[in-house]
Specification:
Length: 362
């Protein structure tokens, strides 16, 4: 760090993203919840056109065409939609916009939440999950500050019903409720329909997971007109061209292919059930994940040990050094072949451990 860095930011403890090895052929990569499938062929087809001569021009700072398409897809008006460079961009704006009285969120939730709060000087009210790692909506009533719920939660994958989230929204009429729905397309209920009923709700989603476009960096948020105007004010005061031309085109094309989204998410849900069953048979317990990952712990092998042994065997999963969840690993659901490699490696690890234990006893 240079001598000139601002004191206000020099002390930041930045977000640590999951490992992103560039030698992809060496790993089965199940650590950052990407899709194992390519983006929709319709999204890819528009790339050559978007990547042509028009790149000399700035992108549309209003993102009109994509916002109109999103509005149509989600049954709202264009004024109810804003765009982000990934949903991280939108979470950052949400902390800026609604952090004055503090932000309440779960002790086990998306790791970036605490980083945004710290960077922006927003007071965090950390609400512990219940012993079974689920959220109790009653814990979020009467706190007198904004509320952020990841639904499904990360990294547990546990989801609240729309009704349960509505209780939190209705119970806090004078505070903003932000619902991060990064993983909603894998079987949970979206709160987007509630944005028509409540003026204190902002729903954030991403193209990174279900639409297989993590590398394009595209997120969107839906809320009432005034809430979206807040987000637009911050976006236009930060970077009005936050979505580049290529991404605007790809996003629009991806929305024109709902059948592909359905096919990908269905396959992930099937692979999730298949992997969960197999892991249970090997002595794992897990949360009830409705996301594109499982959050699992083994009765004999510690969380860090499993992470390290899998990595040695070429399978990357995500381990978090956090007291309450240190025995767990988060495993992204990939295609069936990737899941079989994972299961095979775990079987080897368990057998090697047992052989070692027998050796010691003999
Ligand atoms: N919210 C949650 C809960 C996440 O897990 C992630 C992905 N790490 C994000 C938001 C951000 O995703 P992106 O910026 O790729 O849209």
């Amino acid at each position: 760090m240079s001598r000139f860095m601002s004191k206000a930011y020099a002390r930041l403890d930045a977000y640590t993203p999951g490992e992103q090895p560039q030698n992809l052929s060496s790993f089965v990569k199940l650590n950052t919840n990407e899709s194992p499938f390519p983006p929709s062929p319709m999204a890819l087809a528009c790339l050559t056109e978007a990547a042509g001569r028009q790149l000399r021009l700035y992108s549309d700072p209003t993102g009109r065409a994509l916002r109109e398409r999103l509005a149509k897809t989600y049954g709202v008006a264009m004024e109810n939609v804003t765009l982000g460079n990934g949903s991280d961009d939108l979470l950052n704006f949400a902390f800026m916009a609604y952090g004055d009285a503090g932000m309440a969120y779960a002790d086990i939730s998306y790791g970036f939440n605490a980083v945004f709060a710290d960077k922006l000087g927003v007071k965090s009210e950390i609400v512990p999950l219940k012993a079974d790692l689920t959220i109790d909506p009653a814990d979020y009533c009467g706190l007198g500050m904004s509320i952020l719920i990841d639904n499904p939660n990360a990294p547990t994958g546990e989801a609240l019903s729309r009704k349960a989230v509505e209780r939190v929204i209705a119970g806090n009429p004078d505070n903003m409720v932000i619902v991060d729905e990064a993983y909603v397309d894998f079987g949970a209920e979206s709160c987007v329909p509630l944005t028509k009923k409540y003026d204190n709700l902002l729903v954030i989603q991403t193209f990174s997971k279900s639409r297989a476009l993590a590398g394009a960096r595209l997120g969107f948020a839906i809320g009432c007109k005034d809430v979206i105007a807040d987000m637009e004010l911050l976006r236009n005061s930060t970077n009005p061209y936050n979505i580049n031309r290529l991404t605007l085109s790809i996003g629009e094309a991806a929305l024109c292919d709902p059948a592909y989204l359905e096919q990908c998410t269905q396959t992930i849900m099937e692979n999730r059930a298949y992997t969960a069953e197999a892991l249970k048979g090997m002595g794992f317990s897990m949360t009830n994940s409705l996301a594109n990952f499982l959050f699992v712990k083994h009765s004999e092998i510690g969380g860090l040990e499993l992470y390290q042994k899998l990595k040695e065997k070429g399978v990357l999963v995500r381990h978090f050094e956090k007291e309450r969840i240190r025995e767990y690993n988060r495993i992204t659901i990939g295609n069936r072949q990737q899941m079989d490699v994972l299961l095979g490696r775990i079987t080897e690890i368990i057998n090697e451990r047992r052989a070692c234990a027998c050796g010691r006893e003999a």
